[in-house]
């Protein structure tokens, strides 16, 4: 288990998965919350993959952008600082499966790179059209793992003009915390945050017993420890199969991840606080948002209803069992899954189940937010945008 440290030249204090930000102090704890124009929640990859979404009135101030090229998705978020947070101006998500086959070959395939470049070209057009000047563009596990990852990013520069950086797993974990920090229960003494990705899964333990009045992304200062599991929904489903997932296949997936967690002695204090009920889990991934959407019986995925919802242990078990009982075609037909995730969702459930076996926490909060929000928080806080703006009295809680 490694302690979080500074690897990318950013302030050590604001460690989080979406923004290592501390400037502006605790009163900017809400800064990670997206406030879309027109009141609509921005979309995190359910249902309308590949579509972009403009969010109403044009921006009146400087725009910030965050791009996350992962093993499975390419996602862009453009926002304008506003009050204690930001207003989403445009959002884009496309499943590109950049890491497809990487477990077998150790390389990004030509077809996967072509899909990613096509999506990145769309992102480049959006950034140019909106005249975005401040941005951070990151690539994660697929590019970290692939032998030809750096060569692929050279191609991206040549063909799109975008300069992506391959971030470390530690940076990814810190950004995850920053992006989701506003969803942490203020009464909780500890939080086990997990992010189930396409090629890796990050786990972060926050010990909040001495947090005082800290809130929001200021809580990233209380990261006690973190780890990264070398498995995600794409890699696990490719090894075990994602279409015909029998109970035995599912059990094998769970046992593989359990094996990765065996002998893991990190997360000091987590087991005790989980056992006493003093801690909760916070999940940011397509796996948990899918479970929440099914639990809520949504006919169409709705981020506004999913982001921040609480699930107890029995509800999580019920949703997983329901998914195991579905055939592939039934998963495709479910509006909260669809064809893009039908072969991946049970692999995500297996990773979640293994984590819950290690730390049997009965309270899980669902986050439909992540790296992009954390990046935006970090950029805006570093620029001091909230310090320069008058802070009106809050009339509405964004949690």
Could you explain the architecture of this structure?
The chain has 399 residues and is α/β, with parallel strands linked by helices. The strands form two sheets. A six-stranded mixed sheet has the order 1-4-3-2-5-6, with helices on both faces. Helix 5 crosses helix 14, helix 6 crosses helix 13 and helix 9 crosses helix 11. It is globular. The N terminus and C terminus are likely disordered.
Helix content: 25-40%
The fraction of residues assigned to DSSP E strands is: 15-25%
Pattern of helices and strands? EEEEHHEHHEHEEEHHHEHHEHHHEHH
How far is the N terminus from the C terminus? Answer: 31 Å
CATH class category label of the largest domain = Alpha Beta
Q: Which regions contain 5 or more consecutive residues with pLDDT less than 50? A: 1-52, 391-399
Q: Enter the CATH topology name of the largest domain.
A: Nucleotidyltransferase, domain 5
| Total count of strands | 12
């Amino acid at each position: 288990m490694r302690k979080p440290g500074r690897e990318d030249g950013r302030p050590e204090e604001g460690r989080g998965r979406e923004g290592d930000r501390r400037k502006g102090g605790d009163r900017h704890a809400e800064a990670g919350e997206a406030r879309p124009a027109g009141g609509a929640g921005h979309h995190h990859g359910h249902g309308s993959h590949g579509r972009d979404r403009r969010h109403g009135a044009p921006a009146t101030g400087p725009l910030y952008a965050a791009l996350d090229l992962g093993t499975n998705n390419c996602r862009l978020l453009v926002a304008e600082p506003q009050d204690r947070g930001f207003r989403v101006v445009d959002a884009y998500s496309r499943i590109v499966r950049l890491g497809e086959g990487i477990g077998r070959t150790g390389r990004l395939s030509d077809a996967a790179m072509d899909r990613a470049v096509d999506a990145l070209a769309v992102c480049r057009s959006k950034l140019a059209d909106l005249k975005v000047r401040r941005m951070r563009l990151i690539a994660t596990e697929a590019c970290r793992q692939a032998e030809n990852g750096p060569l692929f990013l050279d191609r991206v520069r040549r063909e799109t003009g975008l300069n992506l950086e391959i971030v470390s797993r530690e940076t990814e974990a810190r950004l995850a915390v920053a992006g989701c920090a506003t969803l942490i229960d203020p009464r909780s003494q500890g939080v086990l945050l997990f992010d189930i990705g396409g090629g890796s899964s990050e786990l972060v333990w926050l010990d909040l017993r001495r947090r005082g009045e800290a809130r929001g992304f200021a809580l990233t200062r209380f990261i006690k420890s973190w780890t990264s599991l070398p498995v995600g929904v794409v890699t696990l489903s490719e090894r075990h199969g994602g279409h015909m997932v029998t109970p035995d296949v599912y059990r094998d997936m769970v046992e593989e991840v359990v094996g990765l967690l065996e002998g893991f002695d990190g997360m000091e204090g987590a087991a005790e606080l989980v056992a006493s009920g003093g801690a909760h889990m916070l999940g940011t991934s397509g796996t948990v948002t899918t479970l929440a959407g099914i639990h809520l019986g949504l006919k169409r995925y709705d981020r506004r209803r999913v982001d921040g919802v609480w699930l107890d242990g029995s509800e999580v078990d019920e949703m997983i069992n329901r998914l195991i009982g579905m055939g592939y075609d039934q998963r495709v037909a479910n509006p909260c899954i669809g064809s893009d995730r039908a072969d991946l969702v049970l692999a995500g459930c297996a990773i979640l189940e293994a984590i819950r076996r290690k730390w049997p926490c009965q309270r899980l909060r669902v986050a439909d937010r992540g790296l992009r929000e954390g990046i935006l928080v970090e950029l805006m806080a570093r620029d001091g945008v909230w310090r320069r703006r008058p802070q009106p009295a809050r009339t509405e809680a964004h949690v």
